[in-house]
Amino acid sequence: MLAKYSENSPQKMMFNPVKDKSVKTAISVEMRRICNLMFNEQNVRGCLASNSISELINKNTTLEPVIKQYFVSNIEYFENILAIALEQGEIENCDLHLKALALQNMLIGLSGMSRIIDTEEMLWDTARQSLVSLGLYQD
After folding, report:
1. Which among 77, 137, 139, 67 is positioned nearest to 104, based on CA atoms?
2. 27 within 8 A of 104, measured Cβ to Cβ
3. Which of 31, 58, 60, 120 is the most exposed place for a label (fewest CB within 10 A)?
4. pTM of the predicted model as reported, rounded to 2 decimal places
């Protein structure tokens, strides 16, 4: 089921960086699109994978490794695109794994916040502030 979900999840289309194009811009544009999607489409609010963390980790030995692998794959993907940004001089030399973890953490939190924030603009402001803090925001 998680494999099927992954085909249409926001992360599936995320960032799509191309060498020699700005990774930070790609991340910022995609995060804006994800905020729009999370706010305006009820079935996207509070993503299945994020919700599964609290519901299944340490409770379901069959699904726990599947859920963990989903997030490990996302984090590896984020690490790879951050390596492109580093290679292109868009970000300072840093622990790319740690930054990828922070980006994944931001998305999990954003997913939950989409249920309680009242406006799409406030959701985007929240995401943008997180990207600025991570040094990943660019117009």
Report:
1. 77
2. no
3. 58
4. 0.79
DSSP state of 40: H
Q: Which of 5, 15, 40 is nearest to 114 (CA)?
A: 40
Q: How many residues does the chain have?
A: 139
Six-digit token pair at 111? 């997913």
Question: What confidence category does residue 47 fall into, taking pLDDT thresholds of 50, 70 and 90?
Answer: low
Q: From CA 96, how far away is CA 75, in angstroms rounded?
A: 10
23 is written with which tokens? 């990774």
Q: Give mean pLDDT, residues 96-103.
A: 97
Q: Where are the beta strands (DSSP E) in 22-113?
A: none
| Residue located via tokens 């079935």 | 43
20, 46, 119, 120 from 101: Cα distances, Å: 24, 19, 27, 25
DSSP state of 10: G
